[in-house]
Amino acid sequence: MRVVLEGLVMGESTRWHDGRLWFCDWGAGEIVRMDGDEPHVMARIDDFPFCIDWLPDGRLVVITGRGLLLRREPDGTLVTHADLRALGGPFPWNDIAVDPAGHVYVNNIGFAFPGGEPAPGTIALVGPDGAARTVAEDVRFPNGMAVTADGRTLIVAESYAGRLTAFTIAADGSLGERRVWAELGSGVPDGICIDAQGAVWYADVPNRRCVRVLEGGAVTRTVDLDRGGFACAVGDGVLYAVTAIYPGAGEPAGQLVAVPL
Q: What are the SMP-30/Gluconolactonase/LRE-like region domain coordinates in residue numbering (predicted)?
């Protein structure tokens, strides 16, 4: 394992996109692109949390904790793509995933975190026309999300249920055929990614690890970390993970690490 970067406050939302690694530092309010081992801040977000993905035309989209879906224009400006505040109430929006048809999925954890009484969360869909609606409910702390390579399945980490849950994506973006993709036992999935073979890697904060799991729950590899694993991405034969000491005091003790696969 190699430490690529030190000094992150709270890294999240790792993504491999167009041959480069991207991630968010929630504590610093930054969206970062890595060029080799060099970090470049691509945008600043005044909210917490926030996560990223890309539309089919290549434009970056960002979901903010308060429910604004932002779009990064070619000149670097951020504009509002959709407003989800009416769907999520006062509770924070979390992760985002975009399918090849341009359906944008974002999830809301459904309660005040940290400190609130746990309650089920939801998943919303923003269509290519910008209209937003709820497409899944009763998700136990919806966290990392990813769409399979064929664009037909959305996989969601249910952190408080210890499982990965799958939905079939309909032509209009609706979610159906809900099913357990993998039971994780003691695993607590946070950020996830899907590798080239269709396996899911999930980062695990309390267990300080990243785990590769197949549909059905078989574990094929575990990478132990020296602090909590918040999110992970695979690119060019390398597993990247952002880690932090949790709970922490907001100090820049997080890292970006790389593990050859």
A: 10-226
Please answer whether residues 249 and 238 qualify as being in contact, where contact means their C-beta atoms are separated by less than 8 angstroms.
Answer: no
Instruction: Point out the catalytic residue in the list 150, 190, 195, 204.
Output: 190
User: What is the distance between the alpha carbons of residues 124 and 107, in angstroms, rounded to a whole number?
Assistant: 6
**47 an active-site residue?**
no
Q: How far apart are CA 151 and CA 138, in angstroms?
A: 23
- Domain region containing 22: 2-260
pTM summary value: 0.96
* Domain count of the fold of the chain: 1
152's enclosing H/E stretch is none
- The per-residue DSSP string of 62-122 comes to EEETTSEEEEE-TTS-EEEEEE-HHHHTTSPEEEEEE-TT--EEEEE-SS-TTTSPP--EE
Report pLDDT digits (tens) over 162-183: 999 999 999 999 999 999 999 9
Peptide bond into 92 cis (omega under 30): no
Instruction: Render pLDDT for 21-36 as a digit per residue (tens, 0 to 9).
Output: 999 999 999 999 999 9
Please tell me the distance from the alpha carbon of residue 147 to that of residue 169, in angstroms, as a whole number. 9
Q: How far apart are CA 259 and CA 155, in angstroms?
A: 24
Q: What is the CATH number of the domain that holds 94?
A: 2.120.10.30
